[in-house]
Amino acid sequence: MSANTPEQSQLGKASAYVDLYDPGLLYPLPRETKRREIGITGSVPFMGCDLWTAYELSWLNRRGKPQVALAHITVPCESTHIVESKSFKLYLNSFNNTPFDSADAVRERLRADLSAAVWHGGAVQSGVGVKLIAPERFDAEPIHELDGVNLDRLDVECTRYQPAPELLGAAFDEQPVSETLVSHLLKSNCLVTGQPDWGSVQIAYSGPQIDQAGLLQYLVSFRNHNEFHEQCVERIYMDVWTRCKPTKLAVYARYTRRGGLDINPWRSSHPQQPPANVRTARQ
Known about the structure:
- The chain has helices spanning 32-37, 85-93, 103-118, 212-220, 229-244, and strands spanning 28-30, 47-60, 66-76, 81-83, 129-133, 149-150, 170-171, 177-189, 196-207, 209-210, 248-255, 261-268.
- It is α+β, with helices and mostly antiparallel strands.
- It has 2 domains: 6-140, GTP cyclohydrolase I, C-terminal domain/NADPH-dependent 7-cyano-7-deazaguanine reductase, N-terminal domain (GTP Cyclohydrolase I, domain 2); 149-268, GTP cyclohydrolase I, C-terminal domain/NADPH-dependent 7-cyano-7-deazaguanine reductase, N-terminal domain (GTP Cyclohydrolase I, domain 2).
- It has an 8-stranded mixed beta sheet.
- Strand 11 (248-255) and strand 12 form a beta hairpin.
- 34% of the residues are buried.
- This is NADPH-dependent 7-cyano-7-deazaguanine reductase.
């Protein structure tokens, strides 16, 4: 089976608006291609997931009345593929004029189709998680900023706008620490269209204390870099892991939504519960 490429997807192209259910709209992209660029071959050296939120989900009940919901979607990072976000949006649009028996039926359809897509038709080793939020629960959806020490307080000079891992450093000759660092200055660009992607990133670690100024400059260096959200977070994880040599590490980014979807990748060196899919104020 030939591999899909980002250039072959619907990104940056005029697309037909399909409002009747069509799982064929989902466009899987292999994770392996970009992982090879950062030295990952075979089994991945981390665990984690991609947390999606779909804000524009609607379908018809059996009497033709529109229904709406929010969807929280959890994609395991060990899956062989991601789903290109525009195709995901087009797929969700295909529910708009499609009757379903219940919200549970919609959830199970989403779970089955997305699980098949991220394993690209192969055996599903770990399924996609789907949770629907009904309108009467919308006001219970919290807003919370990422917890941690704010790196953006630092008055640093920034001159690098392509990923520069050499900016990273740590105090290897001092006592190890455990801390959580946060920046809201992460910006990258879509791999295909070049459109800006805005995010906040949280780095929690134990080990040699990371130089905060260098870390902030490194995160800013993604500003003109073209890569999908999941790929940026894995690049950050691998650069920090390699350069700063923590004993434990977790990297989590929350990106602002585009086309009614936000994508929030999380990668961890050790088993733990994934973060709650709670949006920030910018999202």
